[in-house]
Structures are given as structure tokens and as C-alpha cells.
Design goal:
The structure is a single chain. The chain is α/β, with parallel strands linked by helices. The protein folds into two domains: 236 residues, Periplasmic binding protein-like II (D-Maltodextrin-Binding Protein, domain 2, 3-Layer(aba) Sandwich); 94 residues, 3-Layer(aba) Sandwich (D-Maltodextrin-Binding Protein, domain 2). The protein is built from 16 helices and eleven strands. The strands form two sheets. The protein has a six-stranded mixed β-sheet, sandwiched between helices. It has a five-stranded mixed β-sheet with strand order 8-7-9-6-10, with helices on both faces. Helix 2 links the parallel strand 2 and strand 3. Helix 4 packs across helix 14, helix 10 crosses helix 16 and helix 11 crosses helix 12. It is globular and about 55 Å long. The two termini are 35 Å apart.
């Protein structure tokens, strides 16, 4: 199951009509080739759309073709089947699941964190008050991995029951009905619960990430495409870094509005929706890929994937946890390193 990010949550919240089920293309460089990217279509303009829908696409040799995907698992399955060489916005569980299947891909860019929040009712005054209670989340998602990690840090692993629901909306409904004591949900539902049910925010996904349980939504590419098109892959990474930098700067509105037209999103909704995405800053990118000693195997992404592998094994979704060597072999820091040298984040 794909991690439910702000992408899908904001679609439900704003009830936008998008151009579902069809691919969108933008003219890129002059090579005449097509650069396919699987992406999550919604009000939020992800970095891949910001590149494809603006003049940033001209810095990529080939026409960028965006293909909507419904989940990280489905998107990676399509990538394995050859539907496109890049996939954007996929979270820990589907990526680690693919690593356990030895899918021939590389994680090449850390895009953004989930925008989830833990909301509790007025009776929960401090974290320890959750003992003996129940917290709801999206079953098998990145949020499930995150909240279980946070509970372990609070010493509440065996004291709080985590119940998985089929959707964010179902979690919110259960909280409103008083069936659960806490709801770990995406920002759209979190804002609603804080407003209408006097809920209180306890912790966010970004804060949980700093505790050692980060769930990053990443850009990945197939080994086969990268081997034949290293220059194009580097161009894509550079422009994704540039897009995320622009989206937090003074030109953000202009770029977001222009890109929104490519995927049928309403500009007035796309601008605020995109601006709340917790992007990983360019100056922090390499710190996720490598440890201070320069090791990918000991980097924060690799460690996070190892924890996610254990989470998936505990849930019966993989038979064995991928080894440190397996995980490291699916992470490539070279593109980020070159993008930094090239000043793509400026």
C-alpha cells in the first residue's frame, strides 16, 4: 500500500477535479526521446510536475511524460513492467518491499516527508495518558511505520493498541465517533479534527523523522535506464532539486500555477497545497544518503529502510528483512552529489 501523503489527502479535502487516468507530457530537450515518470496526481504539485510543466523541462534531454499511479506498490509494479523508468513520491514500505524482491532500481533523490500528525482528544493531557488506549492509522502505510516508531520512543509499544483502517477518512470518522483515542492522519484530516473535534496535535511526521523513524517519499529510477541514460538521469535530479528550491522561494506561485495546468489542477488550490509539502532542503539531501563518515550503508535512508524492513516482516508482508548490503545496493548518492556540485539547489 502506498504511503498516503498530502497528495491524496488534499484531493479529498478540496474535492478537486483532475485529469485522472491519462498521461501528461511536456516538451523537454532536443533528443526526441521520452522520459517517463510515474506520479501521484492531485492538487499538490510535486517536483516532477513542477519540472514537466515549466521551463525547467527544457533542461532535460527528452519530453517528460507523466503517468498517474494510484499507489506506491502499483507504481513500482508498473516500473518493473517497463511502463516508465522513473517513479516519484514513493514511500518507505513500497520501496523496501521492492528491494526485498530485488527490483533493479536505485533511489536517487529524497523529495519530502509525509505531512501526517497525531491528533488526540481533550482527555489526553500528556503522552503517557495514551497507555491502555487505541491509536488509528492507515493500515500498512508509511504512517503505520512512523507512529509505531514514535510509540516505541515513548515506551508505549506494548501499552497502546494501533489499529489499521482502510482509509484516512475512516480513521478520522472513528476518532469523531470516540472509538479511538488518537488518530495519526494526513494534514487534511488533522486540520479537520483539530477544528471540529477539539483535537490536539501531539507530534508530526517530520518530528518523528528526527527521532529516527523517517519515512521519505523519494525519486527512483530503473538500473537499465540509468545505465544507458546517465546524463538524462542527472538532468532530472538537478531539475527536481531546482524545482523544490523554487517551490519554497519568491517565484513559487508563478511556477506552481504554470505547472498546475499540465495536470488539470486549479492554480488557486495548487499554490497553498504545494507550499505545505515538507520538502527536504537541497542542503540536507546528502546527509540523508550518507553517514558523516561517507557510508551509504550507514546513511539515514538505509537505516530507515532497515527499520521499515523489520516493520514489514512483523506484519507478514515480507519473509525476510533486506540485508544492509541489499539496501545499500539500491541507493545511489552520486546524482545528488553531482547536483550539489552543479549548484542545482541555488
Amino acid at each position: 500500500m502506498r504511503r498516503t501523503t498530502l497528495f491524496r489527502a488534499l484531493v479529498a479535502a478540496t474535492a478537486l477535479t483532475t485529469l485522472a487516468g491519462c498521461a501528461s507530457s511536456a516538451e523537454g530537450g532536443t533528443s526526441g526521446s521520452t522520459v517517463g515518470v510515474g506520479y501521484f496526481q492531485s492538487a499538490t504539485i510535486g517536483p516532477e510536475v513542477l519540472v514537466a510543466g515549466t521551463n525547467l523541462s527544457k533542461k532535460v534531454d527528452g519530453a517528460i511524460k507523466l503517468t498517474p499511479i494510484d499507489s506506491g506498490v502499483a507504481g513500482l509494479a508498473e516500473l518493473r513492467g517497463g511502463a516508465f523508468p522513473f517513479v516519484s513520491g514513493v514511500g518507505n514500505p513500497p520501496v523496501v518491499g521492492s528491494i526485498s524482491q530485488d527490483t533493479k532500481l536505485k533511489v536517487i533523490y529524497a523529495e519530502y516527508f509525509d505531512a501526517a500528525q497525531l491528533i488526540v482528544g481533550p482527555k489526553i493531557k500528556k503522552n503517557s495518558d495514551l497507555a491502555g488506549g487505541t491509536v488509528g492509522d492507515l493500515q500498512g502505510s508509511s504512517e503505520d511505520f512512523e507512529i509505531r516508531g514514535w510509540l516505541s520512543k515513548q515506551g508505549l509499544t506494548d501499552k497502546v493498541k494501533v489499529v489499521g483502517f482502510p482509509s484516512e477518512q475512516a480513521v478520522a470518522a472513528a476518532f469523531k465517533a470516540g472509538r479511538i483515542d488518537g488518530a495519526y492522519v494526513e494534514i487534511a484530516q488533522a486540520l479537520d479534527l483539530k477544528k471540529s473535534d477539539h483535537g490536539r496535535q501531539v507530534v508530526t511526521a517530520e518530528q518523528i523523522a528526527k527521532l529516527g523513524f523517517p519515512s521519505l517519499n523519494v525519486l527512483a529510477v530503473t538500473d537499465a535506464f540509468a545505465a544507458k541514460n546517465k546524463k538524462v538521469v542527472q538532468q532530472v535530479v538537478c531539475q527536481v532539486m531546482r524545482a523544490q528550491t523554487i517551490s519554497t522561494g519568491p517565484q513559487a506561485d508563478t511556477y506552481i500555477r504554470k505547472a498546475a495546468g499540465l495536470v488539470g489542477a486549479q492554480p488557486d488550490d495548487a499554490v497553498p497545497a504545494t507550499k505545505v509539502l515538507p520538502f527536504v532542503p537541497a542542503n540536507e539531501e546528502l546527509s540523508w544518503f550518507k553517514s558523516p563518515g561517507g557510508s551509504v550503508a550507514d546513511g539515514r535512508i538505509a537505516k530507515s529502510y532497515a527499520l521499515t524492513g523489520q516493520f514489514l516482516k512483523d506484519q507478514g508482508r515480507v519473509k525476510t528483512v533486506p540485508t544492509a548490503e541489499q539496501i545499500a545496493s539500491h541507493i545511489d548518492s552520486s546524482y545528488v552529489e553531482q547536483a550539489i556540485k552543479d549548484g542545482c539547489g541555488k
